Amino acid sequence: MRGTTIRPTTEDDWESVRALRLEMLRDTPKAYGERLADAERLQERDWRRRGRREHDVGGTTLAAIGADGRWLGTMGVFVPGPRVGPLLVGVYVAPSHRGRTAGVADALLDEIEVWAAAHGSALRLHVHEGNTRAQAFYARRGYEPTGATEAYVLDPSELEVEMIRQLRGSL
After folding, report:
1. Which of 39, 73, 90, 146 is the most exposed place for a label (fewest CB within 10 A)?
2. Is 51 exposed, middle or buried (0-12, 13-18, 19+ CB in 10 A)?
3. Full-prediction pTM beyond 0.90?
4. How many whole angstroms separate alpha carbon 171 and alpha carbon 169?
């Protein structure tokens, strides 16, 4: 993590937001509710909107940026409603920076949890039933399945599993 910066994205980051999103969709297509071909058709104005999107809906999107300026990962959080509370979205870490030793996912989630604790008592997420790597990461971080599932938006025959973690120090 030496030399890595974690900061909120802005609309001026649109080119990096685009590049990382396309990388995400190529690497782990079932982790997101969007198809690569659809994302590739988006215009600059759409990517600018995405750079500020979570901020516009009462949330934040963070990027982990290496000392060389390369975007290494991202996570977002927003509050879709008072009954749900904070919801983790858009999680990705480049393959070259995955794992406990690299620490990128942990550093991003640490910051997301700080934000979430100021907006609710728990942080929820939905993870594709086949994404066991992500499920193991969240379990290591104290997230537990709630037993709730929902249909995966791109293939309703598959499921997304809901996980939750109570946050210490929530307001």
Report:
1. 146
2. buried
3. yes
4. 6
DSSP state of 100: T
Q: Which domains does the chain have, with CATH numbers?
A: 5-166 (3.40.630.30)
Q: Where are the beta strands (DSSP E) in the chain?
A: 5-8, 60-65, 71-78, 87-93, 122-128, 144-152, 155-166
> Could you read off the pLDDT of 106-150 as tens digits, one per residue?
999 999 999 999 999 999 999 999 999 999 999 999 999 999 999
CA 56 distance to own-chain centroid: 16
Q: What is the pLDDT of residues 90-118, one digit of tens each?
A: 999 999 999 999 999 999 999 999 999 99
